[in-house]
Design a protein that fits this description.
The chain is mostly helical and 466 residues long.
């Protein structure tokens, strides 16, 4: 092949340089608008990643400190009631912030120790709400009439274990076991003792509770024997508190305590489960309109669990009291309209009706099942978003629908039991069973499929007999 001449090479080099210069001349400088767009895009990307990083940090902290957050919320509402007394008496509108920081100044007692009645613990034990007697409790030796809080302190209710005794140690530690329902504060930390004084302030300045007087100790002839009995009770209390406190002496979180309660329940250790459920209720406090919905639902859920536990022990009266307290607390905190479309409200009504059925009162059971069915219908009509909104992560449309189906079946069986022998089965019973069959036909859930099978079997037996 022939080599290109020198002149030809120079011409190619010149042409290439000319093209490069032309491209440089034709290239326009970037506009200010283009630079601004690129800067905006970069800023948005940085902001997006920053928001994502902050969200991950917040989620991580919430997960780590979830139990502490719940315990804070539970005690918040008790202190909210106390802060109102501070504001009313001293115009201190910032008292709540000091309480949350644990640095508030506890209000002085209104009445001196010399005011009011004197009674021994034996005499105090008579004021337990039975036979229309008032409801008295004592804390740090001071006696209060809490009859106005009968829905919380009456026989069978969640705080009745405080009635007719001085249970200062329980107020201080949160332990609701019988061994902890004693006056002694020996061995408690200053933080725990201060917790008892916070409860004392609540009763002292409560607008519905009234100071009665002081507990007066009976003189004991054998002081050595008395000292031995007190030491024995104190050791039992310390042993009972061991599982309820952390290494620093603080009370365990609500979730930890309720988790242990449910574990005892599953193991059929009903007495231990009952004590732990009660401790959880102490942390939650009395239900009020100021409570967050989450706290109210947690309280109602614990009460329903306690009622179920009572049914396991065949204590149907106690079960009904716990169910009724759950219903009352939901109405107080949510209002009648919202409560009457909530699955927990319907569940409590249905389970309460079951206690009457098990106790042989079929007429009352029928009324209860019908009332529960009405509330379940309201909940289903409200839709899944409304159910899950106030469900604390535990409620769903599927669960509500299944429970409604069970209530329909229980109602049908109860109505069937009321029929005379050879009496024709009414159409309303058949309709309840048809609704179950239609709703759970081809159901994948095992419980729903079992319900479908029971309803279909019962309906088929009617048709064969006819």
């Amino acid at each position: 092949m022939k080599e290109p001449a020198q002149s030809e090479l120079r011409q190619r080099k010149h042409d290439s340089q000319s093209n490069t210069n032309a491209k440089v001349e034709n290239k326009k400088p970037p506009s200010k608008q283009g630079c601004a767009c690129r800067c905006l895009k970069t800023s948005c990307r940085l902001l997006f990643w920053l928001v994502g990083l902050v969200s991950l940090v917040i989620l991580g902290c919430y997960t780590i400190y979830y139990n502490e957050t719940q315990l804070f919320l539970m005690r918040f509402f008790r202190d909210l009631s106390r802060s109102k007394a501070h504001a009313r008496l001293h115009g201190n509108n910032n008292a709540l912030m000091m309480m949350l920081a644990g640095k508030e100044e506890i209000l002085p007692l209104k009445e001196s120790n010399e005011d009011g009645y004197r009674m021994t613990l034996e005499e105090l034990a008579k004021f337990n709400g039975e036979d229309d007697s008032p409801l008295y409790l004592a804390i740090l030796g001071r006696i209060y009439d809490v009859s106005a809080g009968k829905s919380f302190y009456g026989p069978g209710r969640s705080y009745h274990h405080y009635i007719a005794k001085d249970a200062t140690r329980s107020f201080a530690t949160g332990c609701a076991k019988p061994e902890c329902l004693v006056p002694s504060v020996v061995g408690l930390s200053e933080t725990q003792k201060r917790e008892a004084y916070r409860w004392l302030e609540l009763y002292e300045y409560h607008d519905k509770y009234k100071y009665i007087g002081r507990v007066e100790e009976n003189p004991v002839a054998d002081l050595v024997e008395q000292a031995m009995l007190e030491e024995e009770a104190l050791n039992a209390a310390r042993e009972a508190e061991a599982d309820l406190t952390n290494e620093d002496g603080s009370t365990s979180s609500f979730d930890t305590i309720i988790g242990k309660a449910k574990e005892f329940f599953r193991d059929r250790k009903f007495d231990d489960a009952w004590s732990y459920f009660k401790t959880g209720l102490i942390l939650l406090g009395e239900a009020s309109k100021d409570d967050q919905v989450e706290v109210v639902l947690r309280r109602a859920d614990v009460l329903v669990s306690m009622a179920s536990l009572s049914q396991k022990r065949n204590d149907y009266n106690q079960a009904r009291e716990s169910y009724q307290e759950a219903l009352d607390s939901l109405v107080v905190a949510l209002g009648d309209e919202n409560a009457n479309r909530h699955p927990i409200f319907a569940r409590a009504l249905s389970d309460k009706a079951a206690t009457f059925l098990l106790n042989g009162d079929q007429t009352t059971a029928v009324k209860g099942f019908k009332e529960a069915l009405r509330v379940y219908n309201n909940a289903v009509e409200a839709g899944p978003e409304e159910i899950e909104k106030y469900g604390n992560g535990q409620e769903s449309l599927e669960r509500t629908t299944l429970e409604r189906g069970n209530t329909k079946f229980n109602l049908a069986v109860t109505l069937l039991n009321n029929l005379e022998e050879n009496e024709e089965v009414p159409s309303d019973i058949k309709q309840l069973l048809r609704e179950i069959i239609e709703e759970f036909d081809n159901a994948l859930d095992v419980r729903a499929a079992n319900l479908f099978t029971k309803a279909k079997g019962l309906l088929d037996s009617f048709e064969i007999r006819e």
